[in-house]
Design goal:
The protein is α/β, with parallel strands linked by helices. It has a single domain, classed as 2-Layer Sandwich (Nucleotidyltransferase, domain 5). The protein has five helices and seven strands. A five-stranded mixed sheet has the order 3-2-1-4-5. Strands 6-7 form a two-stranded antiparallel sheet. Helix 1 packs parallel to helix 2, helix 3 crosses helix 5 and helix 4 packs across helix 5.
């Protein structure tokens, strides 16, 4: 199964593509989509949308896991990030990719085993679980990989029986 984890943002969108084979996780690609401050909001949203379309087309994920938004301070930022998250989800929907949503608490539980884990603990576990040489930067990239790991750990394979005598799938 191929999972694309997305940490939604407006200036920086983190993404991480991970393949799951049995209990093994293999990082395929990770990085960020960045938009330039000062450009009109619609232009930046289009850049994010186009980049997501390209990402989904190039890597063909089976599922896109995206973090649910949680804001307790800046409402203006929350609206802008929500708009960006919407275009990311639209790109996934148009690509025919299943979308799963996870809260930060769910991601921390799946990756670290503790819902109140510190950001640094999550980053170190991402590095360890994916056998990376160092913690990915910026933080949004490590967060996106954590979201992909959360989906991989949360997915429940089902048994599909057919002429091949049964195979695992979703």
């Amino acid at each position: 199964m191929r999972v694309c984890g997305i940490d939604p943002g407006f200036a920086i969108v983190g993404f991480g593509i991970v393949d799951q084979e049995g209990s093994q996780l293999k990082p395929i690609q990770y990085g960020s989509i960045e938009t330039e401050a000062g450009l009109p909001v619609p232009t930046r949203l289009k850049q994010i949308y186009d980049a997501c379309q390209t990402l989904f087309s190039n890597y063909q994920p089976d599922v896109v896991a995206i973090e649910k938004l949680f804001f307790n301070r800046n409402v203006t930022t929350a609206f802008t990030v929500a708009e960006a998250r919407g275009v990311m989800m639209l790109a996934a929907e148009e690509a025919g990719v299943e979308i799963r949503e996870y809260t930060p608490l769910q991601v921390k539980m799946a990756v670290v085993g503790y819902g109140q884990a510190e950001k640094r603990q999550v980053q170190e576990m991402v590095k360890m679980l994916l056998s990376l040489p160092k913690v990915p930067k910026p933080d949004d990239v490590a967060d996106a990989l954590a979201i992909a790991i959360c989906e991989a750990h949360s997915a429940t394979p089902i048994q599909i029986k057919g002429e091949e005598g049964g195979r695992r799938g979703r």
